[in-house]
Every structure is written in structure tokens, then in C-alpha cells.
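User: I'm putting together notes for a lab meeting next week and I want to include a structural view of one of the chains we've been expressing. I don't have a solved structure, so I'd like a prediction I can at least talk through. The sequence is below, exactly as it appears in our construct file.
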Amino acid sequence: MLHRHVRSLVRMSSSRDNSAPRSRPSTRWLGPALIAGVAVVTTIIVLLLPQTSAQGISMWTFARMHADMYRPQLAEWNARQSDPSRRVDLSLIGVQAMEQRMMSAFLAGLPSADLIEAERRNAARAFAGPLESVGFLDLTPFVERDGLRNKLNSASFLPWSKDGRIFGLPHDVHPMMLAYRADIVEAAGINVAEIETWADFERVMRPLLLKPDGSRRTDRYLLNMWETQIDLIEAVLLQAGGGVIDASGMPVIDTEINARTISQIAMWTSGPDPIAAEVSFWDATGHQLMRDGFVIATFAPDWMCNYWRKEVPQLAGTMKLMPLPAWEKGGRRTSVWGGTMLGIPKTAENPEKLWEIAKHLYLSRELAHELYKQGDIITPVREFWQDDIYDTPDPFFMGQPKGRMYIDLAPYVPDRFSSPFGAIALARTQSAVSRLCAHARDTRPASVDELLPKARELLAEAQQDAMRHVNRNVFFAQREQSNASTSEVTR
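Assistant: Thanks for the context. Below is the predicted structure for the 491-residue chain, given as C-alpha cells.
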């Protein structure tokens, strides 16, 4: 149906008198015209989307595991409601479909679901303009009224915040550890307690790369890391103290810490004696390589444990977890990957009622325990971190109390900031890493220091390209000009 509307608009445009002499069109009104066009098209899209029930509360989630966990709780909730308008109807929607529906509704100012559980990169799309243009309701008054800033892990709020205002209730923390093939490591007499830094990791684990005659094995690497693994690149940068987005939502790609970190990644993957190789997390080939011990250690946020449990059960009893090696002695031993929030669109009615449901799903002890039992995910509610469930030995990880290990690291996950430019900044950073790895393969550097000049050059180019995208955003461009003017006045 929508395609007929689009064809009709195209025919209307093309049916104008083509015989009139053509002149160079004015671009004066191009910006407003584009904005108006987007509003018209998104309005049409939203109107043509399947509508939710007029009665009750509609909720969207993108994760099947979440939906399976919420449905029994919501069934009990609904059974207690005598008013049909307080009953919740949960829909499972694909990530891309949810993003399209959500953003179309936000841009057109039209209703969507009453509660939206969004993944980090989808939610960031809602923060493209000034505060008043964010499609989610500002939850800061609710959070402060109910004292949640102190009750939840503070870093878990940041991906859902803009200019100090909170727009989503956090679902998780997602601290990261290193999962390693303990059966292989311990059989070789290696003690991982000797590992504190990444330099220690390479030194202590290096014997696993050698054959009995001392020559290099070609069927084994120490680390699952590659130049195209964009999520791991971000996690490693964050652990090192870098990152690609600052607290204001602006790209900050070309920093010295980022340059040094990607130089180390290039040495790991593409130097003269590489210790890292790519093993896909998501397909059968990668699963087989993990079973074969092709890589010894793999980055593991808490949710990855559940994925392996279900998709690669043959790894059970062969792996253990350890904190990430730090970049320097005494440094951070964890990072973060992934994240989910629950938000209330501005167009939703009765926010107090919706806030009550959101707290029921995200802040109850019962659901926190279910989240860990079903998904291996630890809660951001700090009060629950002392619960015994997290001390349960996990046979998959050779009896380790996995939950307690993740909780011990949770307070130290690095800060992450939401931005509509996050995806482009990461993409440009990943491109710089790939180019640096190619340079390393060509030049065979002896150390990280030899790669640093090239890394700085490539990150500077990436920053310039990312800023071109920023400058196309009217709101951010104006804000940057205002900040620059303020800096000039204060000098």
C-alpha cells in the first residue's frame, strides 16, 4: 500500500511542465523542504503500520529471551488488574523493524508502543537533536523521586542519558571478562594468577603457541580479536580509558590513548608474530574453531556465557573466566559490551502507570534472579548483588561462581555515552584499525611505538570524517559554534 503512495508522489513531481527553461535551483529552502518531506513520509509510514490495541498497554521488546521471561510476570500482572486499560500486551519485534517504527513515530510525533525495550544502538538514534526533540519521556524526575540513582549501578544510566537527563531505565551492566580454555592452559602448567596486564597475558600464555621443537604453531592463537570486530574494538578502547564519543555526544576519535590502543591491536593481529586471530561468535565454523582450541581466550560479557551454553554446549567443562588483563598495573580489569533500556515514549498516556510497570519488570528481585538463571545476565540493582544466587558454582565454567565474578567487576565498567554519531564514529575508527593492520603487515614493525605515527594520522582522518557528519546536523553544528564562541570570549 505504501509503495502506491510513493509512486503517486513521484508521478505528481514528474508531471510538472518540463518545457520551461531550466535554471540552477536555489538551495535556500532545501533544508526546510527536506525536514518537511521527512515529516510527511514518516507520518505516512506510521499511519500505514499495523496499530496496537486501543485498550490496554502495549510493550515492544526485541529479545526473545526477555519476552519469554516477561510473559509469565505480565500474565500475573494482568490477572490482578480489574481495569483493562492497565493490562499489558507484549510484542516481540525485530531490531530493525523496531527502530523503523520507533523513529518514524518519534519524527512524526505520533503514538507508538507505551513501553519500548530498546537496544543501545537503536536507542541512540532518538538522541539526534536538542532535548525537546527526544522521543522518549524524560525519566529523571521519576528516577530522583524514587532514589534510583543510588540504587542502580551508576554507569548503567549513561547510555540512556543526554545532557544529564535520563530517558531509559537500565536493564543490565554487561561487565566483560576473558573466557579461556582452562583444559589446555592448565594441562600446560600455566597459572593465570600470574596475569595482571596484557603484557603479562602475552608472556605467560606464549608457550601455548609453540611446538615441542620450539617452532611456531599455525593452528593456535592466544586471543580472539580481529580488525573487523567493531564491538570488541570499542570494548578494548573503553577498557584502556579511550573511546570514540565523549559526554557531550561528540566524536573524540583522535586521542593518544586511542592511537596507542589500536597500535597494540594491530600488533596482536597483524604484527610480525601475531597472537590474535578471528573466530566468529555467530556461526558453525567459529563454534568448531572454538571447540578445536584455535583460540585460547575470548572476550566474554555476561550475556555471552548464555550464548555459548545454548549454541556451543560442547565447551562445557573446558572453559574458565578471568578478569581482563589491565593495560597497566593497577588498571581497569573489565570493559562492557551491549546494553538494553526500557523507555516511555512522550506520546504515551499516564506515565505514572507505565513507570510502575517498568519498575516491576526491571527492579524486582524475582525478575533479577530469573534474568541470571535464564540469561546469565547480572542485574544493575546493587541491593541484589549480595544474593546467594550469584555464588552458585557453574559447571559450564568448571565450577566457578561466575555471577559473583561478574558482580565484583560491575562497579568498574567504563562509562559509555549515547550519541547519534556513535555508529559513524565507530565505523570510521574500525576503518582506521583495518588500514593500520594493513600497514603493519606491509612494514612489519618491531613495536607499538613504530606504529604510533601512522595510527595518529589515520585517527585524525577518521575524526575529520566523523565531524563532517556532525556538521551536517544543524543542532550539533550550532552547538559547536556556540561552544567555540564561548571559548573565544573566555580567553
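A couple of points you could mention at the meeting. DSSP finds 19 helices and twelve strands in the chain. The first helix runs from residue 2 to 14.

User: Perfect, that's what I needed.
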